[in-house]
Structure formats: C-alpha cells, structure tokens
Automatic annotation (TrEMBL):
Origin organism lineage: Bacteria, Pseudomonadati, Bacteroidota, Flavobacteriia, Flavobacteriales
Residue ranges crossing the lipid bilayer per the database entry: none
UniProt-listed PANTHER family: BIOPOLYMER TRANSPORT PROTEIN EXBD-RELATED (PTHR30558:SF3), EXBD MEMBRANE COMPONENT OF PMF-DRIVEN MACROMOLECULE IMPORT SYSTEM (PTHR30558)
Location of the protein in the cell: Cell membrane
Membrane-protein topology: Single-pass membrane protein; Single-pass type II membrane protein
UniProt key word Coiled coil: no
Main location: membrane
Family: Belongs to the ExbD/TolR family.
Full protein name: Biopolymer transporter ExbD
Pfam families: ExbD
Gene source species: Croceitalea rosinachiae
Leader sequence segment: none
Keywords: Cell membrane, Membrane, Protein transport, Transmembrane, Transmembrane helix, Transport
C-alpha cells in the first residue's frame, strides 16, 4: 500500500514582513482627529508696577446658570441679544477719548475700548453647548467691531486678514505687510475677555 503524502507546508517566513508592511501602510494613511479647542492666550505673568484700579462701569459681567439662563450686567438676556449688547459696551466711548467709537458715549458705561473688560462666569452645571455659544457671541462682538475698523482703514475684513497673516503658507512678504495692520486693529479693540471661577448653584 503506497504511503500517503502529508499536506504541503505553507512557508510562513514572509508573513512577518507582510504584517510589518501593512502596519506601516496603515500608520501612514490613517488620519488622527485632533480637538481644536478654544483659541485663548493667557497674558504673561508680570507683576504690575502699581495697583491697577478698574472701574466697575468698565466691566461687562456675563453670568450663565445651570439652566442656560443668561444674566448680562444684572439683567436677564437672550443669547441672541448678547453680541449686540457686548458691542454697545465695547464701542461706548464714555470718556470721549475714543475718536473712532460710534457708541452712545454713556458716562455710566465703558470709558474706552482699551479699558473695557468682559467678564464671563458660568455655573459648574452649565451645558457645554451653551458655554460655547456664549463664548462665540462674545468673540463675535470683538470681531464685528474689528471688521468695521479694518473696512474703514484698509477696505478688508479683519478676520480674513488675521487668518491670512497666521497662515504659515502665506509668503513672508505678505505676512510682514499684514503684521502692522492686524496689530493696529487689535489695539483699537483689544480682546479683554476674562473668565471668573465657576460657581455651584444651591
């Protein structure tokens, strides 16, 4: 009786190489999602030469409770009205030193855009979506005013100028030209948006 042959052996010597190549392929072609987060730059830690006294009228306080209700300058307000109210505060020019402000020049409101501060405080149980919406409205108030001045001075939108300036692919000659313009607009309406420590509702 003839002897039966066993099953042919599979040469597994190159399997490790194939697995290694597949691993490299997936590492190179896979994109990893990154969280954008909030664009905030903390000021440098420098002790002030003198004690800075901030007048209460130069602070626009915004409080969000755990139910998503908004209290702006001690008055209930809808989120859709927040941007307009913030712009009126920033653009007030109460002390008359701002020659580009178009506000009411109310003596009981902010003196000057350089002195105006927006203070945001939220409850620990505030919904994240509400918090982000309020943030967007407040930053939008600054951007709208900056856009207005950029149009007046350079016939361009500030947001577009800033994004072009911050884009690393923008030629250095163009970035150098935009640097002074962007800085000038930022100095007209400096973004002074502070966040107070969160509180817990009882």
């Amino acid at each position: 009786m003839p002897r039966r042959k066993g099953a042919p052996e599979v040469n597994a010597g190159s399997m490790a190489d194939i697995a290694f190549l597949l691993l490299i392929f997936f590492l190179v072609t896979t994109t990893i999602e990154t969280d954008a987060g909030l664009d905030r730059m903390l000021p440098p830690i420098e002790p002030p030469d003198t004690d800075v006294v901030i007048k209460q009228k130069n602070i626009f306080t915004v409080n969000i409770n755990k139910n998503g209700q908004l209290l702006a300058d001690e008055a209930l307000m809808d989120i859709k009205d927040l941007r307009k109210a913030a712009m009126e505060f920033l653009d007030n020019g109460g002390d008359g030193s701002c020659d580009f402000c178009k506000g009411k020049r109310d003596a009981s409101s902010s003196d000057n855009p350089s002195k105006a501060i927006i203070s945001l405080k939220n409850d620990r149980e505030t919904k994240y979506a509400t918090y982000i919406t309020v943030q967007n409205e407040l930053v939008g108030a600054y951007n709208d005013l900056r856009n207005r001045e950029a149009q007046r001075l350079y016939n361009r939108d500030f947001v577009q100028m800033e994004s072009e300036y911050l884009n690393p692919e923008t030629p250095s000659s163009v970035r150098d030209e935009l640097k002074d313009k962007v800085k000038r607009i930022q100095e007209l309406f400096p973004q002074k948006l502070s966040e107070a420590e969160t509180s817990t509702s009882n």
